[in-house]
Amino acid sequence: MGKGLVIPIASEQQREYAMARANAAVAKGVQQGAVEIEVRYAARELSQNAKFHAMIADIHYQCFRGYSADGVKAVLVNQFALEMEEQGEPLAKPGEKVWDWKSKQAVYVRPSTTKFRKAEAAAFIEFLYATGVELGVNWSEPALAVYESYKEAAA
Questions:
Q1: Do the Cβ atoms of 52 and 121 come closer than 8 Å?
Q2: Contacts of 130 (CB under 8 A, 6+ apart)
């Protein structure tokens, strides 16, 4: 079955589709061995992902072009995780330090934005906006639209 099957469900129609799809996947998977079904609340919305990537792109392009976009994102996520921890609200799935026995040094694995909960993703958007303002970022139209829609939803 490979990596697994994730089916977002937000309506009755989607529930019916998801049940049929899950049933077919289980029927196929059980032929190869035992399978598991996990039901959980959505971690965050994909629209939140697109929103904060527009803001990260502006910060990267205007302030840190000498670094890769992935590197800038990693720093921003790390700073956000540290700020949340300082506020007494650590991320549900924080990063971790792992010991590399060969090079004899700690390797930091940053928190994954794909594992942010909805509230964490919303707080990350707010953090990105504040960070961009501190850095003097002139927000692009997509990033401004992101922040405006976020503020309206939060109100």
A1: yes
A2: none
Residue 85 is part of which domain span? 46-154
How many angstroms separate the CA atoms of 3 and 78, rounded?
Answer: 27
Q: Could you tell me the mean pLDDT of each successive run of 10 residues in the chain, 155 residues long?
A: 71 86 88 84 66 92 96 97 96 94 95 88 93 96 77 60
Domain containing residue 126: CATH number: 1.10.3790.10
Q: In which element (H, E) is residue 99 found? A: strand 96-100
Q: Are 51 and 149 in contact (CB under 8 A)?
A: yes
Number of structural domains in the chain: 2
Interstrand relation of 105-109 and 96-100 (parallel, antiparallel or unpaired): antiparallel
Tokens read off for 58: 């502006």
Which pLDDT tens digit goes with each residue over 104-140? 999 999 999 988 888 898 899 999 999 999 999 999 9
57 and 114 share a domain? Answer: yes
SS percent in the chain: helix, strand, coil, step 5: 55, 5, 35
